What we know:
The complex is a heterodimer.
Chain A: E1 11-18, H1 21-30, H2 41-45, H3 60-74, E2 81-90, E3 99-112, E4 115-126, E5 131-141
Antiparallel strand pairs in A: 1-3, 2-5, 3-4, 4-5
Chain B: E1 7-15, H1 17-27, H2 37-42, H3 52-67, E2 73-80, E3 93-104, E4 110-118, E5 121-131
Antiparallel strand pairs in B: 1-3, 2-5, 3-4, 4-5
Amino acid sequence: MPIDPSVVGRVYPAQLYEVSREKIREFAEAIGDTNPVYVDTEAAREYGHQDVVAPPTFAMIPVMDGVDILMDDLGIEFARVVHVDQRFTYAQPLRVGTRLETTTRLDGVRSVAGNDLLKILSEVRDAEGAGICVSLATLLVRPEDSGEGDA
Amino acid sequence: MLAVGEVVADHTYWITREHLVRYAGASGDFNPIHWNERVATSVGLPGVIAHGMLTMGLAARLLTDWLGDPAAVIEYGVRFARPVVVPDDDTGVAVRVAASVTEVRDDGVVALEITVRVDDQKVLTQARALCRPPAAPSAPPAS
C-alpha cells in the first residue's frame, strides 16, 4: 500500500549524538582517509580548528538516527529502502566533543511505478542551536509485497 | 588560479569485502546486501554491493585530500545511479574518481563536478560540490 501523503510535514523529535574522537578515527579508517586532521589535534589546529574534525560524510551517522525513527513511524523495513540521492550543506565541520541534535522532517512523498519516493530533510545543530549541517535525502521504498529488486 | 574545466584531482580507489565490513561497523549500516551474497542475490542484486555512502565517502576523500581541510567543503551531493558490485576476492573493485572545476565564483568558491566510475560506467551521477579552494601560496606575487 502506498504511503499516505498526509504524513508529509511530520517532524520527529531531535536525536542526540555526541561526536567522539574514537568514532571519527574509526570512520576515517573505514573510508581509508589518512588526512591527519581526523586524528591529530595539532594538524587540525593548522586549519584553525580547536581539535580534530570528522570527514564530511560522517554527518550521515547522526542523520540516520532520525531517519530510523521516521521509518519506524511509517512502518518501513530497512530492507525495502534504496538510497537514491544525498546532499549535505555544511555550515561548520563536525568537531570532536560536539553534542549534536538532529531533527528530521518528511518533506515529500511521491509514488513512482509502485514505489514511494521520500524526501527527507535533516538539520544537524549543536547544543546551542547553531547550524552545523543540513542533509537532503531521497529514499526509494519498494512495495511490501515485492521483496524483489532490479537494482 | 583555477580555471573552468581544470581537473583538480583524479584517483582510483579499491573497495574489497574487507572495506565493506569496516564501513558497516563504523557507520552502523549492517544491511546484509553489503556483506551477504545470498541476501544480495535474493533481492535481485548482481552480488554484494558497496554502501552508497562508502562510495560517496571515497569521492569526498578526493576533495578533502586536495583541500587539506574538510571544512572547506561547503556543499556536497550525489545521486546513487548504479550499484558497485564488490567481488569476493582480494583485489576488489576499482572506483575511479575525478573532480573538475565547473565554476569559479567571485567570492572564490569553486563549484566542482565529480565523476565516479567503475569501468566505463558512472556509479554516482550529479555528483557536485562547492568548496573554498586551498589558499594560494602565501608568498607575495613576484611582480
